TrEMBL record:
One of its GO terms (molecular function) is histidine-tRNA ligase activity. This is Histidine--tRNA ligase. L-histidine binds at residues 89-91, 119, 133, 137, 304, 308-309. Residues 1-22 are annotated as: Disordered. It comes from the Bacteria.
């Protein structure tokens, strides 16, 4: 007798590099985004939502290889055989939106946005293929004033997230300064020198991880890491390597001193002088608005690895000292950053369109706050109305509606099982307060309220009847008309 074919049952599994987000993570991330949005809004920015897909050619410098649009990004061909790609970040879609609606938008155009971005890269620890970014950008303002404002926004978001001023710092630099140094080192500021410049930027960006010796190797011929992988170097001459390394250590705790030092380093380079002048303008505005060096510093080791930045760049760094499970120190480092990018919108329009922005990774920021024990839990578990008698369901839902109208999160148990099973469910949900209404309570016009947290504590600590009687009761019966007020009072005592 032939065996019956078993029905196909797909294996429950999620793709590598993608995460399921449980409720506590969603709430923490949503709360952080709301706080960031409040800061953006207070500065006069407006919200925008762009689609997850863009035409691949619109990604421009974000696209690793235009001939292979599914490398680095997730791409597919539309029915008209045009390549579509999931957005790599939120900046390229903004550039496309501004170019497409340029004449109708006020200039400068100021927008903020949060949403998922996607990277078609090999996943690893802390490296995901989908994550959430939260951005603000100003398009159409070419002066350092707009950059100074973005730096202020970054510092204010750190405060809004609940951090003290000694727990974070915004570190600022200017790409034009490095351009000036490289010009003096015979690296042309042309398309031909773009690859070499990008190698220099990426080398400096590894300074905190590889140290001066490792960066020196990457600025020269190259470096072989512990696994045997070899990274090609920028091929600077010895004078160029010395100049770049000297530039990365030119910072001082005093912003004015740093500006004076940099003025001497850039020499006669016009681009370098522009960078110095822009930092001086940023310092003037930061000082006038109370953003002192303890919140915002000038740091020439900050370059940001992306090649499209054209002027001031900055990073929001968390300074708290934390340890892993084995007690070893863990450096959190940068959780966001930004800077000036004046060439992205001009790709579409063929004319200069200045822009500057700030972005942070939401999951990374939340994870850092949790490690720093600075994550503020704002969600209360619901009050649970247990079901003793299904004929009383209308009364249960009526009370639930009254509690919700009073601002109290409330759930009526909709599953199956007796009260013992419902209490186990409440324990798994972290419920602190349960409401019990049986037929006797209903007839008497009463409601029994059970403090599950206090009850569990009392059961552990109380040893005698006298102690039980003198303690605050974990369970009390109140009149139905006073139920909402009594529940609010009990919740306030938690």
């Amino acid at each position: 007798m032939a065996k019956k074919n078993k029905p196909f049952r797909p294996k429950a599994r999620r793709p590598r590099g993608f995460e399921d987000r449980p409720s506590d993570v969603i709430r923490a991330e949503s709360a952080l985004i709301a706080k960031a949005f409040a800061v953006y809004d207070s500065f006069g920015f407006e919200p925008l939502q762009t689609p997850a897909f863009e035409y691949a050619d619109a990604l421009g410098k974000f696209l690793p290889d235009e001939d292979r649009p599914n490398v680095g990004v997730f791409a597919l061909q539309d029915d008209d055989e045009q390549w579509l790609s999931l957005r790599y970040d939120l900046t390229a879609p903004l550039a496309r939106f501004v170019a497409e609606n340029y004449d109708a938008l006020p200039k400068p155009y100021r927008r903020y946005q949060a949403g998922s971005v996607f990277r078609n890269e090999k996943p690893g620890p802390g490296r995901f293929r989908e994550f959430t970014q939260c951005d603000a950008d100003t398009v159409g303002a070419g002066s350092a004033v707009a950059d100074a404002e973005m730096i202020m926004v970054a510092a204010e978001i750190a405060r809004a997230a609940g951090l003290r001023d000694d727990q974070y710092a915004v570190r600022v630099n200017n790409r034009k300064l490095l351009d000036g140094i490289l010009e003096a080192s015979d690296v042309p500021n042309t398309e031909a020198g773009a690859v070499q410049r990008l190698q220099v930027l990426r080398a400096i960006d590894k300074l905190d991880r590889l140290g001066e010796e490792g960066v020196e190797a990457l600025l020269g011929d190259g470096r072989e890491d512990e696994s045997g992988d070899y990274t090609e170097g920028a091929k600077l001459n010895s004078a160029g390597i010395k100049a770049v390394l000297g530039f990365t250590t030119a910072s001082d705790a005093n912003r004015e001193t740093t500006i004076a030092t940099l003025s001497g380093l850039v020499g006669s380079s016009d681009r370098g002088k522009q960078g110095v002048d822009e930092l001086a303008e940023i310092d003037r505005l930061l000082t006038a608005t109370g953003f002192g060096p303890e919140r915002v510093s000038f740091d020439t080791s900050v370059v940001r690895g992306l090649g499209y930045y054209t002027g001031p760049v900055f990073e929001l760094e968390l300074l708290a000292e934390i340890t892993d499970r084995k007690g070893r120190p863990v450096r959190i480092g940068s959780i966001g950053g930004g800077g000036r990018y004046d060439d992205l919108v001009s790709r579409f329009r063929g004319q200069p369109v200045p822009a500057t922005g700030f972005s942070f990774g939401v999951s990374r920021f939340v994870s850092a706050l949790e490690r720093m024990e600075a994550l503020q839990s704002e969600a209360q578990p619901p009050v649970l109305i247990t079901v003793f008698d299904k004929s009383l369901l209308p009364e249960y839902f009526k009370l639930a509606a009254e509690l919700r109208a009073s601002g109290i999160r409330t759930e009526v148990f909709t599953g199956s099982g007796n009260v013992t099973k419902q209490m186990k469910y409440a324990d798994r949900r972290g419920v602190k307060l349960a409401v019990l209404i049986g037929s006797e309570e209903a007839q008497a016009g009463q409601v029994t309220l059970k403090d599950l947290v206090l009850g569990a504590e009392m059961a552990k600590a109380i040893e005698t009847n006298e102690e039980w009687k003198s303690a605050r009761p974990a369970q009390q019966t109140v009149s139905r008309e006073n139920a909402v007020a009594a529940i609010r009072e009990m919740m306030a005592d938690e």
